[in-house]
Design goal:
826 residues; alpha/beta; four-stranded antiparallel β-sheet; four-stranded mixed β-sheet
């Protein structure tokens, strides 16, 4: 189970991602496999800390006032209480993981695994500490990884600013920027080396506005986009990722003017009156000064993507900071190879390319976070700032004494990125590094099911670290479930007002109906699932059909047989053979689709078989007493509930227990074997001809305007076998009128079947028709006898009236003749 955040509540994404997991485990358990679904929750460091800090502020205190030890005690108490909430919600959704093996990413055993991996990577040279540009979340007061940055489209301005030339202040170079507050940290201007417009500017110097106290060069770099703005860009290495790379290439200084609280700081460069201002207040003030100095050329409306923290929604501030990083290329290469040689596959296949592209362009991972809740770095520093990385404090002290002659250590207060512990999930929850029975039996697992948005954050990292520490890919199959959108195609969110609580759906329609409704909307190749509540309502109606079919079976006067056994083939009726053939086909399709992770086909196949084949056709046929109906209906419903169980665990259990069965629960019943279900394709084909005939006669009934209680008169060729004739009359509520027709097959005989309305119905209808037509004939004749109309109306109008009269006279003659045929005596 992708561990949900301990702060989370169940949402529709859990329905689309976790329901398939539940389906697969229930299916494989019924196959007899050693199947397990391992659950747990994630400590969600930044999200949890944000909630706790707000709660402490409401109480008039802070984490700093409490101190780390007391703060963590409260965090543990809160997470223990909150983590139980989502587990309870999952139970209401019908999810049945192995709750006794549930883990929390902060459990002692998992924490020990995290520490061991960190230390091993450090000693292998893959984890290091360096001052580099990172993504800073000013609201959460921590770094976030590249994969946790969302680029949100926002409307802002593009400010065109003139930087005066040092040798001619009346002229200058014009640049475009969306972040005037970072001008204070500019160290250069840059143009593309092939942009001939500015060749003469390369090497010149300008003054940085609005303070005009510093001189900076104009240089050429291929990273510059000549189509953006004026074609000249400002270079601020400490506050922009692209600028940082330019700064490194040209060995430029990298000063910062924005601090961790997103305020302007003059600790490295003069910032004048802007000292201490919030970054957005400084933006407005700098624009005002630029305008006052005549250096603001113009302002243009501009829409662009703004880097935003996925955790807090705050605009990311790129900052230069001393942090811990993990080298990713040595880890990415084996993970790439595993995909390319087929040890890892994605379903749908296109997501493999997404995985591949990210690993091909991977950058080092900033793994340290400035929050207290989480796995504290196993890092200590001596008074002279030597770094010691060890699995325990005792080991760190021993190293400090032996190598540095001190026992005075200070532990790094930072914690690890939450995704670091999640990356170990497939093997840490099985007891690694201990060689437990669970690890031997269940690693690698068979399949991972998750969303595409965490292929980078989670899937790729599990593969990389799984290969590094176990030598094996943690799962051969990664099924990527679609994202859930509203019916109108918009991503669901509280702010848009289109978010749907799955538990509300459960309250209204039941967990089974919600699960069936969700799975029917899932398409194997679909990138999104457009959720429609009406599918859940249809699911409830579907379950009512099942319930009524089961009640009918249980009410049969002969009773259901004590054992689940089919009658001999030569005793089966044509309807029996047809439904068993359909059941055989359904077992094959559902089984193959489950093996292919095609959950939408599974749901739709079961829906159509149970609703139409079983309830609409076979149950209706079983209302005509036969010696075999009870045994066959019992067998079909029993098998149907076993097929349905993975998707609908509740009603399948209830109905299955009421029928003849072997075992204590449908959960542990055997999966249906198609080889044990007899097929008779010839009888099935004959029954399908009957179905088409019934549908045709029902259509005729509707065309004749007959209600469901009115009996049809069916002209039945004598060549139709009695059992087929009896079923046909039962389905259409008709009476037979035998006719002699020359036919050479059942299909030909049924094709010759015709339906008529009863004589009294036809007499009433044609009498009404005759009266209506006589009225129209009389009206037209009166009009044409009117000489004033004939003499004054246009000839075309008069001709049209004569045509009407001829038409109505002909129809009246036909209606009268039909009444005579029927035998009207009046």
């Amino acid at each position: 189970m992708p561990p949900p955040n301990v702060t989370a509540r169940a949402h529709l994404g859990h329905g689309s991602t976790y329901t398939p997991m539940d389906i697969l485990v229930r299916y494989h358990r019924m196959l007899g496999d050693c199947a397990d679904w391992l659950p747990g929750t994630d400590h969600a460091a930044i999200a949890t800390e944000a909630v706790l800090v707000k709660e402490l502020a409401r109480q008039g205190t802070s984490r700093e006032s409490l101190g780390r030890e007391e703060y963590l005690r409260r965090a543990w108490a809160w997470s223990t209480q909150t983590g139980a909430t989502i587990a309870e919600q999952f139970r209401r959704l019908g999810f049945g993981p192995d709750w006794q093996r549930s883990h929390f990413t902060m459990d002692d055993a998992l924490a020990a695994a995290v520490t061991k991996v960190f230390v091993a990577l450090y000693r292998d040279g893959l984890i290091y500490r360096d001052k580099r540009l990172i993504n800073w979340d000013p609201a959460a007061q921590t770094t976030v990884s590249d994969a946790e940055v969302e680029h949100v489209e926002r409307a802002t301005n593009l400010w065109i600013v003139r930087y005066p030339f040092c040798d001619d202040p009346s002229a200058g170079a014009e640049i475009a920027t969306t972040r005037p507050e970072t001008i204070l940290a500019d160290v250069a201007l840059a143009v593309h080396p092939d942009d001939r417009r500015f060749s003469a500017l390369i090497g010149k110097h300008v003054r940085v506005p609005p303070l005009l106290e510093r001189e900076i060069p104009i240089l050429a770099d291929p990273a510059v986009d000549p189509t953006f703005g004026t074609g000249i860009v400002k270079v601020t290495p400490a506050h922009d990722a692209t600028d940082y790379e330019i700064g490194l290439r040209h060995r430029l200084p990298i000063p910062s003017v924005i601090d961790l609280k997103a305020k302007i700081t003059g600790s490295e460069l003069p910032v004048g009156r802007f000292e201490g201002m919030d970054r957005f207040d400084a933006r407005r003030a700098i624009v005002e000064d630029l305008d006052r100095l005549g250096l603001l050329v113009r302002t243009e409306p501009y829409v662009h993507n703004v880097a935003t923290s996925e955790r807090s929604g705050e605009m990311i501030e790129p900052l230069l900071s001393l942090q811990w990083f993990c080298r990713m290329k040595p880890l990415a290469e084996p993970a790439l190879q595993a995909y390319r040689d087929g040890r890892l596959r994605f379903i749908p296949q296109r997501y493999g390319r997404t995985y591949e592209q990210w690993l091909e362009n991977i950058r080092d991972w900033n793994v340290s976070r400035q929050v207290w809740w989480g796995h504290q770095l196993p890092v200590w520093y001596t008074p002279s700032e030597e770094t010691i990385v060890a699995e325990t404090e005792e080991e760190a002290l021993r190293i400090a004494r032996e190598e540095y002659g001190t026992a005075d250590l200070r532990r790094d207060p930072d914690t690890l990125d939450t995704w670091f512990s999640s990356a170990l999930w497939p093997f840490s929850i099985l007891g690694w590094p201990q060689q437990t029975e669970e690890l031997k039996e269940w690693y690698p697992s068979q399949v991972l099911i998750t969303g595409w948005e965490i292929i980078f954050l989670w899937v790729a990292r599990m593969v990389m670290l799984g290969l590094r520490f176990t030598g094996r890919v943690p799962f051969p199959d990664a099924f990527i479930a679609p994202l859930v959108f509203g019916a109108e195609g918009r991503k669901m969110s509280k702010s848009l007002g289109n978010a749907i609580d799955p538990l509300v759906m459960v309250e209204k329609y039941g967990a089974d109906a919600f699960r069936m409704g969700m799975m029917r909307q899932m398409r194997l190749e679909g990138q999104e699932l457009r959720f429609q509540e009406k599918r859940c309502e249809e699911g409830r109606n579907f379950n009512n059909k099942i319930w009524n079919a089961a009640r009918f079976a249980l009410s049969l006067p002969e009773g259901l047989p004590a054992a689940l056994r089919l009658p001999p083939a030569d005793e089966l009726s044509r309807a029996d053979k047809w439904i068993l053939t359909r059941l055989h086909s359904t077992v094959v399709t559902v089984t193959q689709s489950l093996d292919a992770y095609d959950f939408g086909t599974v749901a739709e196949t079961l829906w159509r078989f149970i609703w139409y084949d079983v309830c609409d056709w076979y149950v209706e046929a079983a209302k005509v007493p036969t010696a075999t109906r009870a045994a066959v209906l019992s067998f079909v419903l029993n098998t149907g509930m076993r097929l349905l169980h993975p998707i609908e665990p509740f009603i399948s259990e209830e109905v299955w227990l009421a029928l003849p069965h072997d075992g204590a629960s449908v959960m542990t019943a055997s999966w249906p074997d198609a080889a044990e279900i007899p097929r008779d394709q010839e009888s099935a084909a004959q029954f399908e001809v009957l179905q088409r005939t019934v549908e045709r006669l029902r259509h005729s009934r509707a065309e004749m305007g007959l209600g469901p209680s009115a009996r049809l008169i069916v002209q039945m060729p004598r060549a139709v076998p009695p059992d087929i004739a009896g079923l046909l009359l039962w389905y259409v509520r008709g009476s037979a009128e035998p006719v002699d027709v020359d036919v050479d097959s059942l299909e030909g005989a049924l094709g010759a079947v015709e339906a008529q309305a009863p004589r009294d119905v036809l007499l009433e209808r044609y009498r009404k028709q005759r009266a209506h037509l006589q009225h129209e004939v009389d009206r037209a004749q009166r009009k044409l006898r009117d000489q004033q109309f004939v003499g004054k109306a246009p000839a075309a109008v008069v001709d049209r009236e004569r045509d009407k009269l001829a038409y109505f006279e002909g129809e009246l003659e036909r209606a009268t003749a039909r009444l005579q045929e029927i035998g009207e005596t009046a």
